[in-house]
Every structure is written in structure tokens, then in C-alpha cells.
Amino acid sequence: LEDLQDAFDFSYKLHYHPGRDHSRDPQYAQQVQALQAKLQTLDRQRREVVAQMQQILGRSETLWDFLQQELGAWHERQRRSCLGAPEDTCLLQLQTWFTALGEGLFQLLQLLRVLGELRQKVTYEQDPLQAETPLLETRLKEQLTCLLQSAFVVEQQPCMPNTPKRPLVLRTASKFCTRARLLVHLHDRNHRMEATIHIDRDPPKTRGFRRFNILTSSSKTVLAGDSSREGLVCNFQYLTLKEQKGGGSGKGNRGSAEGPLVVTEELHLITFTLAYAYCGLELKLETSTLPFVIISNNNQLSSGWASILWFNTLSTNPKDQQFFTTPPPAPWPRLAEVLSWQFQSTTERGLSREHLHMLAEKLFG
């Protein structure tokens, strides 16, 4: 395209002089016809390029639909693995797919910018670059935004090192860790990517809901390893929680029976925020952990873990902090499956039909 329009532009400036008298120049009409033919060739090529980009964007939207399905399946596997199910939660394959689609879309973005520069040099009436490239760029940036927002995931849910089989139950003053990953492994090494975490940034409007502070550092610079296997990871370790006691809120001020929820049914969220920039595109990416329970002593661990089992078995909304205001009953087949996972995660062997039948008789008579 650049060669075609440079040739057209040179001929246009050399031969096209509409204000002069060309009655004595028999070649002028031929030169104008040749110039018109060059313009038609340039216009045809521009329309072909625009059509190809539209086709590629259509294909990338189809790919994105498939990736969303795969990502949704991974999220479900992660929830099940938190309950002890033997699920594969490795992100390397998803990261490969997300990065490949991201590379293609960012290459298209760079091509669109080059087309914009060509349009600045040469344009004409009904120029397809004038009419179509702004729409293509808007559509492309929407795709990139959706891709990058979904690509920011919590790879490791909050967990205390001394209870690895029971994630999502945290104790105040005890250390815990959590980790997020950006599956699109593309970054600008000159741009410092900062990730921050917040707990209960939008807390439920529930009377007596406890508020907490995250002690130690709540921000980290995202480091990229040399290999794609390492990825773009923000790993928060050695975090601790401290309850806020001021303002009449918190367990110490409201009393154990004053709030609508007991401590072990109060659900909290940690939100990761990442300032991302690449190829001139700047975005604020966010992702949240699964809801977790905060206890103050080990006597509450079993009850807190029961809440985590119930929530992840039955909730259809992974951010529903109000779940236990009206908790639904669990169908026995689903609960039996979760109980079997619990045994399998600890003993490497699930429960047989006879075991589950015995438990059902204990529960239901």
C-alpha cells in the first residue's frame, strides 16, 4: 500500500495541474487517465486490506468465545479443587492460547496505526481508510480490553501455609498467601507494572459486618520471568489481617449475637488491581479471589471450612458475599460428592457407595 500510494502521489504532483490550459498538450489526457487508474488500484487494495482486517477480527471474536468457555471451565475446576477434587488447575495451556490471541490483536493494532499514517499522507473521496479504520480500531480495542480483563486471574486462592488442604479460611494475625497471574504474557519492559490488593473494597451493607486491614505490603511490582512458563505473576506472601475496632463495627464492639451473620458465615473478598500498559494501550485490570472466611481462633476452623464447602458447592455467583443471609439447602448427591473429595484429598481414596449410604443414614435416619 505504501509503495502504491507513493507512486500515485508522485504522479499526481508531477502530472495533475487542473488550473492550467492543456489544450495544446495531447499527452495530458492520457496522463490523467493513467493517474485515475492508479487511484482505482490504490482504492481496491485499500478495500481489500480493510476487508481482510474485518475478517481477522471476526475470526478472533470466534476464538475469544472458545477461550471464554475454556476459562470458565478452569474457574470451575479451581473451585472444585479448593474443595479437594482431583482437578488439573495448571494455567500454562490457557496462557499459551491467551498470549497467542493477544499477540495477533496487538499486531493488528500496530497495522491500524500504520494505516492511519498512510491515510494522513494520501486520502480522497470515499477513502475506505477514512471511513472504516476508526471503527476497526474501536472494535479491536474492545476485544483487547475484554481479553486482558479476563486474562487477569487469581492463580492461588488465599491460604494459610499450615492448612493447605483448607484454603479460603484465614485466621487473624496468622500469615497467608495469594497469587494472581496475567495470562497474556506480553509486557513493556520500560513500563513498571504495579499490582495492589484491597480487602472488601465494596463491602456488603450488612449491619455488623467486620472490617479488616491487610498488614505488610499491599502492593507489588509484577515481575516477568525469562521463560513463558513463569508468566506475569504478582505473588503476595506473608500477609496478615487485623480487624478494625473503631467506629462501632467489628466483632469486639457488636457482640457475638448482634450481627445478622455469625463470624464463620461472614464472607470476604480480596481484589487485585493491575496497571497494565503495552503498545500504547493502558488499562486498569481487576480480579477477585473467591469469598473466604476470617476466624480468630482454631476452634472456628471446622465451622469456617463448612461455610466454604457450602458456598462453593451451591453458589452460582462467585462474588456473592450475602450468600449466607439465605443459604440454600444442598442436594444429598452433590454433598456426597464433596464429602468424597474431602476424604480423597487427605487419604488419596474417595468414599464408596457403602460409605456414603452409611453417612446418609447418620444424617437422615
From TrEMBL:
Protein name from the UniProt record: STAT2 protein
Keyword Oxidoreductase: no
Keyword Oxidoreductase applies: no
Gene Ontology CC annotations of this record: cytoplasm; nucleus
GO molecular function: DNA binding; DNA-binding transcription factor activity
Domain Signal transducer and activator of transcription linker: residue ranges: 322-365
Species lineage: Eukaryota, Metazoa, Chordata, Craniata, Vertebrata
Predominant location category: cytoplasm
Keywords associated with the record: Cytoplasm, DNA-binding, Nucleus, Phosphoprotein, SH2 domain, Transcription, Transcription regulation
GO biological process: signal transduction
Entries under Gene3D superfamilies matching the protein: EF-hand, STAT transcription factor, all-alpha domain, STAT transcription factor, DNA-binding domain
Domain of life: Eukaryota
Residue ranges occupied by any STAT transcription factor all-alpha domain in the UniProt entry: 1-143
Gene name linked to the record: Stat2
